[in-house]
Amino acid sequence: MITVLEHAADLPAEWDDVVGDNLYLRRDFLAFMETCEDCRQRYHLVWDAAGHLDTVFMTYVRDHYNLAMFTPRRYEVTMTFVYVPLSVTRPGIAWGACRDEALAYIRGIRGYAMLLNLPPGDYPGFATGLTCPKCILDVAWPTFDAYLAGLRSHYRNRYTKALRRSSGPTLRWLDDNSEFDEQLYELYEQVYDHSSLKIEKLPISFFRGPFFRILVLSDDDGPQGFVQFLPNGDELIFEFVGFNYATNRTYDTYLRLLLEIVRYGIDEGYSSIDFGQTADDTKLKLGAQYTMLYAALHHSNPLLNSIGKKLAPALQYTPITTDFQVFRATPLAEERPSEAPLLEEPDTEDAA
């Protein structure tokens, strides 16, 4: 049996038990997201034969979604997503034994429906393909200095240069995220506006949420950048970044903020850092590794669904194949220069 609710406040406590460590699907976070954006969200609860809650998922609707976003073409559709609407690396579904019943229900949604950020697996009836992989850095160093020392010289010199360039500005934590003002939000908008892969734009209220930590880099003229991240048990999740493009090359702001995520993750004893799904070139050069994620697409019209299956290989994301060899495997004196250039400035939105 499947029941559908419209508001997170009405979800039973068992919902949180089913979603486990997917904090984006927890009731308190979903309730927070409802205050940020009305996206026609619905919460679906799948009960097993014994009346126990077994599988849950969230749907929301987006108009003008570009189904061909990973290609030069544009094909806008109205899409029902099984996903959390903030560009995170987590799926919008948590399943148990009733997985097939949930997938059958999703296949019955009228028009286009898509599940995002799925693990590898069999999704019968759906067109499947790669979406943006997430970039995960396993934290294996006792200190940030040890992390830098473990890098090959090409990367270590570049990151040391970024730290030196940004030594003048100051770093400070927001004591209360209600301090996130229009000036900081404009820095986020700069990154969004420069993005070649615009996924979704979040309102300022999202950045004022109580779940996050926000670090701000400022000079005498005010904030020049910020980074937002989210603690999740022994994992640190990079959310969003904003910076002033006019001073980014002066301070290496973007790279400095990413390095501060690494520093914080090491200093606070996290096991891993989830750097998200965008600007993967830069994050792989920090030492992160891909975890492949998949999308599953269905259309209620059998002909369009068949076409989707045939086109999926052409529409899917193409991961970077370069092996950047970020860390030293030989004594320092035996290192060879890397042939991979280091990215100076991101060309895409960060989200996570």
Automatic annotation (TrEMBL):
The entry's keywords? Transferase
Matching InterPro entries, A to Z?
A: Acyl_CoA_acyltransferase (IPR016181), BioF2-like_GNAT_dom (IPR038740)
Q: One GO molecular function term?
A: transferase activity
Gene3D superfamilies documented for this protein: 3.40.630.30
Can the keyword Transferase be found in this entry's annotation?
A: yes
Is the keyword DNA-binding in the record?
Answer: no
Residues in BioF2-like acetyltransferase domain copies: 158-281
Its recorded name reads: Acetyltransferase (GNAT) family protein
Biological classification of the source = Bacteria, Bacillati, Actinomycetota, Actinomycetes, Propionibacteriales
